[in-house]
Amino acid sequence: MSLSARDIQLSSNSFSSKQEADIWNYLKAGDKKALSYFYTKYFNSLYNYGSKISRDAGLVEDCIQDLFVEFWNKREGLSEVSQVKYYLYKSLRRKILYKRSLLLRLPLAEVDSFEIELSHKAHYLSQQINSDIREKIKQMVNTLTAKQKEAIFLVYFEELSYEEAAVIMELKIKTVYNLIHLAIAKLRQNKGRFSPAVFSLFF
After folding, report:
1. Does residue 127 or residue 179 have the better pLDDT?
2. Residue (of 148, 53, 44) closest to 93 by Cα position
3. How far apart are CA 25 and CA 114, in angstroms?
4. How many CB atoms lie within 10 A of CB 177?
5. What is the largest CA-CA distance in the chain?
């Protein structure tokens, strides 16, 4: 039986007290409410992450919908998952990059990107910052590579471990450590000009 995007949004309150690894097994066994649980819980965070990989909001939303439809249609062959969040992030990242490569007609290695914009939750605070200073801060953060920005976002803002970030980004753990170390070193060169807390406005 196939599943449409509309079917995903079901009541999933009955899973609130269960471990996510167990709920994942319910999904594998064919429980639509288990699928709805993950969709409801993670849609916003997946969209936030996906929108940093691609600015095409429609593409990001389509990838999230496609991801959950595929989970359902291929549920019997899904892997055992202990940490669902980073499994979802890894799957979405792959799907967005693959679709971007098709749209841009470029190899996957050439479509890797990670954009930052002022977060909605920080919009009010941003009004207190001079626009010229705000632009300089943004430019400074954007001197980091796409992978450096993504590693910082996953570890410091999504609170994933280095190991989980490495799985999502399909890199070695040591590489993730190095990416973050070099990124922080670069940002600290400007610590005399801006408070480090200001950087959180852009993630």
Report:
1. 179
2. 53
3. 32
4. 15
5. 60
Architecture category of domain 5-110 in CATH: Orthogonal Bundle (1.10)
Instruction: Report d(CA 83, CA 196) in Å as an integer.
Output: 30
Task: Report in angstroms the alpha-carbon separations of 139 from 135, 151, 178, 197, 202.
Answer: 6, 18, 22, 16, 11
pLDDT digit string (tens) for 10-23?
A: 555 567 668 999 99
Q: pLDDT by residue (tens digit) across 78-126?
A: 999 989 998 999 999 999 999 988 887 766 565 677 776 655 444 444 4
Pick the CATH number of 120-202 from 2.60.40.1120, 3.30.70.920, 1.20.210.10, 1.10.10.10: 1.10.10.10
pTM of the model: 0.77
